[in-house]
Amino acid sequence: MNIPSCQHAIDLLLDYVSGELSGEHRAELELHLQQCACCHTYLETYRLTISMTRQLPQEAPLPPEFEARLLEMVRALQEEWER
Ligand SMILES: [Zn+2]
Asked: In angstroms, what is the span from residue 58 Cα to ligand 1's centroid?
């Protein structure tokens, strides 16, 4: 079993938090999270964002600027790791 890179872990994280990640990939990601502080932090941040989003009224779509800010944050994190 390969431990995924941070980039790969981020891709998996999105499915992981929505419960769509299964089997081998899930195990890989959990292994990575145990060993990688930055991805662990990212997971916490992502979960927090989701719980904030869920507090919004159901009929309100995710504001585009909110989604843009989230993407921006992800990119900033990724750039930091690539240094
Ligand atoms: Zn990582």
From this structure: 32
In angstroms, what is the span from residue 52 Cα to ligand 1's centroid?
Answer: 24
The whole-model pTM stands at 0.58
64 within domain boundaries: yes
Residue 56 lies in a domain: yes
pLDDT for 56 beyond 60: yes
Query: pLDDT digit string (tens) for 13-53?
Result: 888 988 899 889 999 999 999 999 889 988 888 888 878 77
Q: What is the 3-state secondary structure (H, E, C) of 5-59?
A: CHHHHHHHHHHHHCCCCCHHHHHHHHHHHHHCHHHHHHHHHHHHHHHHHHCCCCC
Which domain, by its residues, includes 77? 6-82
* CA 56 to centroid of ligand 1, rounded, Å: 30
